[in-house]
Amino acid sequence: MGLSAKDALQLRDTLQIAVVKCSERCLYHAAKWAAELLDALPQPSAADFKATQDLPSSYIHPAFTPNHDPAEAALEAKELSRYLLAKSLFDCKEFDRCAAVFLPESSLAEMLGTKVDDATTTEGREKQRSSVVLPSERALPQISQKSLFLALYAKMISGEKRKEEESEMIMGPQDLGTITNKQLAVISRFLTKWFDQRKSEGGDVAPSQGFLEYLYGMVLVKEKNDKAALQYLVESVQLFPWNWGAWMEITNLITRVEQLNEVTPKLPQNIMSFIFHAHASINLYQQGGEIANALNDLLVVFPTSSFLLTDKALLYYHSKDLVAAEQEFSQLLGLHPQRIDALDHYSNILYVLNLRPKLAFLAHLCSSIDTFRPESCVVIGNYYSLLSCHDKAVHYFRRALMLDRSCLSAWTLMGHEYVELKNTHAAIESYRRAVDVNRRDYRAWYGLGQTYEVLEMHAYALWYYKKAAGLRPWDGKMWQAVGSCLQKMGRDKDGIKALKRALLADSYYDSSASSFGSTGTIDRMTQMDPEVLLQIAAMYDRMEEEEEAKAYMELCVAQEDGGVTNDQGPGLGDSIGVRADSPGSDDGEGGGERVAAGEGTGVTVATSKARMWLAKYAMRVEDYETANRLATELCQDGVEVEEAKALIREARSRMEQTSMMES
Prior knowledge:
Blueprint: H1 5-24, H2 28-40, H3 46-49, H4 70-78, H5 80-91, H6 95-102, H7 105-112, H8 122-129, H9 145-166, H10 184-201, H11 211-222, H12 226-239, H13 244-253, H14 257-263, H15 271-283, H16 289-301, H17 306-318, H18 322-335, H19 343-352, H20 356-369, H21 374-386, H22 390-403, H23 408-420, H24 424-437, H25 442-454, H26 458-471, H27 476-488, H28 492-508, H29 530-542, H30 546-558, H31 605-620, H32 624-637, H33 641-662
Helix pairs in contact: 1-2, 5-6, 5-9, 6-9, 9-11, 10-11, 11-12, 11-13, 12-13, 13-15, 15-16, 15-17, 16-17, 17-18, 18-19, 19-20, 19-21, 20-21, 21-22, 21-23, 22-23, 23-24, 23-25, 24-25, 25-26, 26-27, 27-28, 28-29, 29-30, 30-31, 31-32, 32-33
């Protein structure tokens, strides 16, 4: 996906414009994102600069070009001094004063035909929702779109700040999550009137710049009106595609791959749409060569982009290739050693891989850069968790949430810590709050299932496990949890289907093995989890289907040598009957360790139990030589030695009796 010199210079100029426009509107995160992408572009050579002679004059020094719309340009020039004051106040975090520069409270109440304080009451909200224009309403002020956005955005941030101040202590008795931003109703009513006025005036108004659509989309998201929010956000990126904040809001609204495919044709066809599609796919836990190729193509254009390199590491992480993900994050940290963004994910990887020295270094690094960043607190919390200091880990996760109540990692990981501390009530509440932040977080759903299973509430646990499996249909750990829960509920037939689905799912991540053929059978050269095979065999045994039980017990024992036998295993294709999206369409960290195909697991508790079952089965069918061999192997392995010796004695006695009778 290499760009020509001319295209690269145009992209550079466009990103410069994006940085300036977002900075002017105090959209600092969007400006930072565009600036990082701009910095990741390779520096053009002297020969490339000559290509600017062929470009339109608007592409030369674009950061200093004025507004091209005459009406908007005149308004911006007229209110320049007030705009500079408002922006300075915003930068000083005096949000109410910033909003009052262009929209004083008294004038705003007159414009909307109601007191601003009415927005906080039920009666006032009903009055604002009315489509009837009240006699006391005034026309909207004639100010530029840039200043209007800044004033309304400051009012929204002020409401968010006040909401945080009024919220109770994290996980306190009154922390019910019911506190709302009281400014949203005012902003929503104002923008509704502004858009209606533009529609009534038709073509006599200046073209929209896309930022007010973005602001209205954010307001609608907070009001839980996702359908209308998506419509305005898509319109925003069509008008100004370089505001990454709008793309992120769209990403958070998309919960299914089908929804992403529906939205994609409506988006502008440029490099931003390409970046968005790759990022949204990773957020939906999608894997595959297409996403990896898309990221590699983008990295050709932006070789050192911290955002794209993070997405590449997360792609490995979601694919359960933790070693590759750790290497990518390590390289990213080398390129950008002061960047804290996404290091909470890196700490999760180091935790699962049990790399304590690296996690200690990362915690020290984050603490030295900025102790009061949510990501830093999560990293330190993970370090204490690895040391089994669960109380200290909870302290740091709570601190992360005090800094940002929408910090998803902190809610989920705090749930894990409460499970370790045997505080199931707090664990359930933490996981529920994580789900409220992001309903796509399969770890929170899985954690809820685990917690209810500890409480022996298997029906609840099964529901949550199925939600997790619906989000990660190709993660064997999710289906194993579903199958184990069904087994405890006595639903062996459904449990077998789910556990076979787990075997299929684990094979999805093993690209080196063609696990399942068209006949729906397992190739026994494929390494499988002996625990799952033992569970399937045990359920067949309870259902008194001994032949199936024997086949899976043999398959379990075969995993010691890498799953190598001479024939093919039991059919699976017709047994996958558990729906991935049940009951709805919508962990610890995903997946236990699996040994690569052909290496073998060696002797495990599961394979020893299977060997003991096979030895007893051989005794029942009077195959005493096989029983003697299996029991001898159990003695050599040092597992169930006394019972194995008793089997050996009985088998040899029976063989002696048989030989005497024959002679």
